[in-house]
Every structure is written in C-alpha cells, then in structure tokens.
Amino acid sequence: MVEANNDSFLKLKELKPDIVFNFAEGLSGFNRESQIPALLEMLQLPYSGSDALTLGICLDKSRAKEILTYHKISNAKFLVANRMEDIKNSSFDFPLIVKPISEGSSKGIFSSSFVKNKKELEDEVQRILSSYNQPALIEEFLPGREFTVAIIGNDDDANVLPIIEILYEDFPEDVVPLYSYEAKWILDTKENSFDVFECPAKINSKLEAEIKETVLRTYNVLRCKDWSRIDVRLDKKGIPNIIEINPLPGIMPDPNENSSFPKAARVAGMTYNQMIQNVLYSAAKRYDLL
User: Fold this and answer.
1) How many other C-beta atoms are found inside a 10 Å radius of the C-beta of residue 273?
2) What is the pLDDT of residue 110?
3) pTM of the predicted protein model
4) How many Å apart are CA 39 and CA 197, to the nearest integer?
5) 74 vs 214: CA distance, rounded Å
6) 146-169 as b/e, with b when 16 or more CB fall inside 10 Å?
7) CB-CB contact of 102 with 59 (8 Å)
8) End-to-end CA distance of the chain
9) Segment 6-49, tens digit of pLDDT
10) 225: closest CA among 101, 49, 105?
11) pLDDT tens-digit profile of 59-94?
C-alpha cells in the first residue's frame, strides 16, 4: 500500500511496481482524482482505471454533461451558475436539483437541494457558491426510478454487472427522494438498517437493454477504462438519463455498508477479492502485460 500524499512520487519511483491498482481520490482541488494518474504517467507506470483526463472531466459534472449532450446521450437539462446573476433569466420547469459542480459521495446534496420555486433556487445557489467555493450545477428533476450500474472491462469486453435500483418508496416519508448526503451517510450506516437497494433490479428486458446501452455508450464516449459505476434515472417519459459517472467508484468491503459496486459484484457471483482481480486483469490486459 502506498498512501496518496506528497511522498507518493518518490515511493513509487523507488518501488517501480509492475502495475498500480489506483483508488486514490486525491487531496485537494478540482483535479484531485487526476493527481495520482498524472504522476504515474510521468513515471511511466501502468495503473488501473481511467486516465487523468477522464477522471477530471467526470468530477466536473458540467463538462461530463456537455460531452454527453454533444453525443445525444440523455441527461437532464442543466445550467451552471458561477454567480447569482446567472440564474436571473433561467427558464426551468420546477422542481430542480442544485448541487456543487465538482464533489463526490453526495457531498453538498441535501434535502434542501430539491428546490420547488425561485426563492429556494436562489437560496441553494447561494449556499453552494459560499460554502463550497465553486459553481452550482442546476438540473431539472428527473421523476422516475433510479439505478446505479457497475461496469468492468474495456471495449467489446466491457461487462455490465447486475443493475441496482434505489427504492425511494422505502425512504422515510419526510425524506426527499434523493440519494443525498443525509441518506448516504446519516440514514445509511452499519448501525441503522436502511436497505433501500434491490439487486438485481426488477425491470423488464426492454428497460434493462436501454439502461445497459446508455451506460455502455457513456462509458465509451467518456473513455472510461477498466471499471466505473454510472448512475441513471428515468425521466417522465421513462427514458434512462445519465445522472453521474463514477470512474473511481467506492469499494467498501463490508457488505453492511451498502457500497454499490461490491454489491453488484457479489450478485454477479464474485467475491470482493475476485472483483479487485477482475479490474486489475482488465488493466493488465490493456497494457499488454499478460
């Protein structure tokens, strides 16, 4: 194990590993997830997962959405607010979702992020701008079912693992139907039973095929490598829309912690170690190390 800190460069330079399994999220800045991959490229060391460019683009949700929109991959109508003046002439249909542009793990997404009128929109944009020192991403709310989809592999060998659905009907009545910071880190703990995940999701073959096609197109368009977890929500017409791309997915090993990627892998018949090995195998194959 090599800690992803200021000592990483010299340690990795000395170790000269055949390949690095990367799950470092970085220490600071909008490009924090790109730091270790860029360092590894400079040292000419092979590593698992997406490269620095893809990681940077996917952490900036607006840049990812711009690319998806260009490629006609469905995602919610959106606006980036760099300052309060940017929302004055916005023409959205409420309700909306307001979130920081470059955070992960639901950071900055609370029940208040679900806004129903102009005043709530102004309050939330101001909260993001002042609390997170970054632009706010405003999206029209997608009212349909929500899924998260894990992928392992590359190109024609990319394998979609069993789809997970988040069952919002099982949320407490006073909790907004979002997998928010409160839901992820306050309601969903090892000590508190919060089983709102269904894997495999109970969906018909047509919807399953549509979701798989959408996430694989997204995976390839954004040039993800070896693995990713992609969040999807249905719009009012039942069309799968991309919510977020996680090319560096969480992989907590304890089944009681509801980490989605390992959950899907277990349903696919893998142990935790086999999941890690499969990701590493995909990377080694990509580098022609096998």
Assistant:
1) 9
2) 83
3) 0.92
4) 37
5) 8
6) bbbbbbbbbeeebebbbbbbbbee
7) yes
8) 22
9) 999 999 999 999 999 999 999 888 899 999 999 999 999 999 99
10) 49
11) 999 999 999 999 999 999 999 999 999 999 888 999
CATH topology for 78-140?
Answer: Dna Ligase; domain 1 (3.30.1490)
Query: Hunting for tokens 């800045």 — which residue is that?
Result: 29
Distance CA 145, CA 261 (A): 19
Q: What is the pLDDT of residue 107?
A: 77
pLDDT in tens, 85-94: 999 988 899 9
For residues 107-128, give the mean pLDDT: 91
Q: How confident is the model at residue 108 (pLDDT cuts 50, 70, 90)?
A: confident
Interacting residues of 155 by C-beta distance below 8 A, sequence separation 6+ = 220
For residues 129 and 81, the answer to whether their CB atoms sit within 8 Å is yes
Sign of CA dihedral 223, 225, 231, 235: positive
Pick among 3.40.50.300, 3.30.470.20, 3.30.300.70, 1.20.1180.10: CATH of 55-74+143-286 = 3.30.470.20
Report CA-CA distances (Å) from 66 to 71, 79, 80. 9, 11, 11
> Please, where are the H alpha helices in the chain?
8-15, 35-42, 52-59, 61-70, 118-132, 181, 205-221, 260-267, 272-286
Q: Extract the tokens encoding 232.
A: 């999807």
Tell me which of 188 and 160 has the higher pLDDT. Answer: 160
Burial 6-42 (b: 16+ CB within 10 A, else e): eebeeebeeeeeeebbbbbbbeeeebbbbbbbebbee
**141 token code pair:** 């709310």
C-alpha dist (Å) from residue 176 to 19, 75, 134, 150:
43, 21, 24, 25
